[in-house]
Design goal:
Order of helices and strands: HHHEEEHHEEEHEE
Number of helices: 6
Helix content: 25-40%
Strand content: 25-35%
Length: 207
């Protein structure tokens, strides 16, 4: 209605959100919000509607079970023959899958660009330390972490030696690790990626 209270939702709304008609009748749609959309955008929405215009945009909302979903929305005023606004109608499309596909595509493109840049460094860079530093920084970016390091195997000491770091203090460059010791030592010993607690590590075994 004119105050924003829900009078009717169709079956698709129930399918997407998990809420039935009786659960939402009389409520303001804001109960769905996940706080992703800013207060400024909501103010612009209502200003547009109050002025008789149509608002279009996206919402990142929360279902009844607590999971999040994306929707594309178009909200328009409903008028009487003399132009008075009596209601608002919202037409929405669930675009959660589209958003996920777009994010996956962007990540793939970022990976390809990082690989291209790393290959370019391998062909151009003659300074091993600078090359390893570049690899550490790009790997951290692709994994979505703030800290990263590259460790090389030292045949003389039979230890892993940290050779390049990103996001760490300088002292990390002197760390020496035994096989099987900690996350990095375990990854090196197993030759496989390891996910433990909130740590993510991977290794690249060279011949």
């Amino acid at each position: 209605d004119r105050t924003g209270a829900i009078e009717y939702v169709n079956p698709k709304f129930t399918e997407v959100t998990g809420y039935g008609v009786d659960e939402v009748r009389g409520q303001n749609p804001r109960f769905l919000k996940s706080n992703h959309t800013s207060a400024t955008e909501y103010a612009r929405l209502w200003a547009t509607l109050a002025a008789g215009g149509e608002w279009r945009g996206e919402f990142h909302n929360r279902r009844k079970d607590g999971t999040l979903y994306w929707e594309m929305a178009s909200i328009s005023p409903v008028r009487t023959p003399d132009g008075a606004i009596t209601h608002y109608v919202a037409v929405k499309e669930d675009i959660t899958a589209r958003k996920a596909a777009d994010a996956a595509l962007r990540h793939s493109l970022e990976q390809l660009e990082a690989l291209r840049a790393t290959i370019a460094d391998l062909l151009r860079e003659r300074d091993l330390e600078k090359l390893l530093q570049s690899i550490a920084a790009r790997a951290a970016m692709l994994l979505g972490v703030t800290h990263g390091a590259v460790h090389l195997w030292d045949e003389t000491t039979e230890r892993l030696v940290t050779r390049a770091v990103t996001g760490y203090d300088a002292w990390r460059a002197t760390v020496v690790i035994r096989l099987g010791e900690g996350v990095v030592g375990t990854v090196a010993e197993r030759r496989t990626a390891l996910i433990e607690n909130d740590y993510r590590a991977s290794t690249l075994a060279a011949p």
